[in-house]
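ugh ok so i messed up the first submission bc i forgot one of the chains. this is the corrected input, ALL of the components this time, i swear. 718 residues overall. if the numbers dont match what u have on ur side tell me asap before i send this to the collaborators (the ones from the other lab, u know who)
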Amino acid sequence: MQCLNVDLGDRSYPIYIGSGLFDSSDLLVSHMKGRQVCIVTDDTVAPLYLGNLERVLQGFKVTKVILPTGEAFKNWATLQQIFDALLNDRHDRRTTLIALGGGVIGDMTGFAAACYQRGVDFIQIPTTLLSQVDSSVGGKTGINHPAGKNMIGAFYQPQAVLIDTDSLKTLPEREISAGLAEIIKYGFIRDAQFLAWLESNMPALRALDSQLITEAIQRSCAIKAEVVAADEREGGVRAILNLGHTFGHAIETHQGYGNWLHGEAVGAGMVMALDLSARMGWISSEDLARGTSVVASAGLPVMPPENMSQTDFRRLMAVDKKVLDGQLRLVLLRALGDATVTTDFDADALSGCLAMSPA
Amino acid sequence: MQCLNVDLGDRSYPIYIGSGLFDSSDLLVSHMKGRQVCIVTDDTVAPLYLGNLERVLQGFKVTKVILPTGEAFKNWATLQQIFDALLNDRHDRRTTLIALGGGVIGDMTGFAAACYQRGVDFIQIPTTLLSQVDSSVGGKTGINHPAGKNMIGAFYQPQAVLIDTDSLKTLPEREISAGLAEIIKYGFIRDAQFLAWLESNMPALRALDSQLITEAIQRSCAIKAEVVAADEREGGVRAILNLGHTFGHAIETHQGYGNWLHGEAVGAGMVMALDLSARMGWISSEDLARGTSVVASAGLPVMPPENMSQTDFRRLMAVDKKVLDGQLRLVLLRALGDATVTTDFDADALSGCLAMSPA
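and heres the new structure output, hopefully the right one now
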């Protein structure tokens, strides 16, 4: 087992990464302060792993909330089911919520923990590759609004993150690719050497080679932890973690939540960000080709959906959380391994980039 | 104008108290960082003061949200109207929300600010005596759940609090009394000298003598600021601010939100807490009589509603946020001016106290 620390002063917490962690009660229980616990999961993950967790939590008063699966349910009505269960079973301020599932479950459970009685503890047990390397670390929680993704939420840190790599064995191939999108992102924004390592090892990573995938998760979490520690509430550098996400969120919203996986939208979105960086002359056409090829090799789309026009992109990107005083800000690359957040992009270059979509 | 500081490190903020503050744009604008602002108010306060505020904010992009008045609307559906307006007018992370109204508006606006894009700034302009001395200071925000009051919310501090004492002139007498309940509370929990001062000046306070009411607000806010600075997230001493509130919340929930004013329920609830303190032998029967008389002199009820049974109280008090591991905690007095939070109360004494209600 590996252990990383997210360094946030009195909100610091450990990330445990390894095989067989579901069956290790000590790790979990050492981060709980009361005898009440509420496990929140979905109807895809529950049949696979809820039993393991219940065995580990014998002796606790356990409430289970099994939500419908998918981004389409990341809304207030679903969140309310968590509050209803907590109040129905009279959970008090010492309770611990456990998020068992992918990013949607983690975001909603974290937000429920942030709001229930103005804040109770929670633990992340991410079961998808995407949530293991991204949403479970860093304390971004929330739900969607019909007008935009993650528009309602809180910065709220967990007590601990438990990543059991065994859970990847039950993941569909498409979701492995989606997770690899965020892993590739860390190479693009911060670590050219890691990017080269990913290029060399992509087939083995897609085949879930145990040692390599653990290394990829560990490196990804380490980069994320470092960026989050530098800027917890995204006043500055943290925004680079959104490489490809402004384009990607527009794609997800346009297609209806859940039709494109988040990682797929980020894959295409990162290629768009690289394309814009190349049009600006910040990276070479070789770098663009190389970046596009890494994304493709992970089994991800490198083009936005055919039915999206430039107008669609502009309308949906205007509500991005990085917009300030009406000015769109984008994460672009100055080189592979070096990202920056900027408002200083050429309008024509952006038009050219968006026109990649056959509008 | 008087200015107090709530000392919370990088979340510190000023409370301004005085006459004519609505018309002073400098105070307000100095606490805003963008050009966007969203004023949230209700249909009672809007006709009285919204115009003043709009005049002061000329040059800003102002969104107005006018909500229905009352505790019955302190729920998710109403909160959603704030998010809808913010997204519709494309407010970004630099926006400022302004709560113009009583405690319900302040709590909902603060919670909306805590959650919108994971947190934007807000300013409290409380227009009722109750919210001026209580809910506008200290950062407790939230909404009600059908199963309990303020069960969903956040600790989230404003940028500033502006208390314009002129706004009291339009308040109904019943709401002045409700505000005096919380003012009396500060005397009970922390300041016997202030309690004696209130006893002497109650008729003039009810008549809104300008100098005296400003002094009462200032002293109340100072006590609250001191307690909150010592314990922002209510891990300990802050709970004494809830004197009478466990009983009071039970009364409010039982009667249906809005039928008893919060201050009225707290008035009766404080007398119940004093009664229990006397039954425990912690305060004398003279102190109980004196305390009851101060509450009555403010025009507040000193008995719970006739239709509430002991069983009703026990059921509703079991979901109080101060319950930990199934154990009810109450705020009781060791003397007038000295409160403590305790689980150490006699079961028979509590039964006797609850039986004050003719059940």
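quick check: Chain B has a mean pLDDT of 94. that seems consistent at least. The longest strand of chain B covers residues 148-155.
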